[in-house]
Design a protein that fits this description.
The chain is an alpha/beta fold. 35% of the residues lie in helices and 20% in strands. The chain has twelve helices and 13 strands. Strand 9, helix 8 and strand 10 form a beta-alpha-beta unit. The relative contact order is 0.15.
Amino acid sequence: MKAPHFWAAGLDPKSREAAPLTRLLLTPLALLYTWGIRRKLAKATPERAAARVICVGNLTVGGVGKTPIVEALRKAGTEAGLRTASLSRGYGGNQAGPLRVDPSRHAASDVGDEPLMLALSGETWIGRDRVATAQAMAADGVELIVMDDGHQNPSLAKDLSIVVIDAAAPFGNGFVLPKGPLREPVADGLARAQAVILMGEGKELTAVQKSRLPILRAKVQPSSEVPHGPLVAFAGIGRPIKFFDALKAAGADLREGVPYDDHHVFTSGELKFLNELADHHGARLITTTKDHVRLPAGEQQRILAFPVEARFEDQAALKALLAPLIDPVKA
């Protein structure tokens, strides 16, 4: 989904860019959406699984950097000696689950691009029914579940709910869907969380400070050296510019960056265009790991993937946050 321009922050609310008439017409729908999500959350009786559950969620539609956080928390649980696995809905895949993802057997069309990417570095499950999938994971021996998304889904009881916020573009125009990018009012979402992770550069947010929640800061950084030589990058993620900026910050000789919508499925014509563009610059193509798993096998051989990971500014704060779940005796 391509975000409407008027969802952006900082627009003059009376300007044509801010689409004041459109926003006015969408106000009743936004109020109805807010009422619906509040009612769903209030009426729900979350079910427990026989495993500890960490939910990594967000308050807006679009990418905020949750997946690298899920990977980092899964790694922390594994290093603590717990069998730890990530749980995703499997958006974009045709399998309903519960299903353990196997990169040697499954494609992005089966399980979704993010779960397939996560499965390259650790145990990953998918399931549209989060409760049934969490129960299947626990029955299989998983001790700690790190759930990618689901903060607005009350079906599965959570032991720790973390909200991830893009510090550079936190809440868009501040309105709830479809008037803005928020999945729910900011105060509502923070009230159900136990911690906030601010991703990237950006000032402290008033709403987050008022919540009095623990605030951790993290950045997405390369987990390998940037390839030498000229590069042409492309990305179909929430904010492709973040990927292009990360490449340049890592010292890449980036000639061009081509953005696509999140979860974009590349056509043969688009891949031909990208290859011709790279040839024009005498460059190699490079993309995100998430995009790379969606490419045809032949293109995966030719196109570079640039892996990234989340790195926390304060590792001690992260360890303290996770201690009750991964080391309950010491906590």
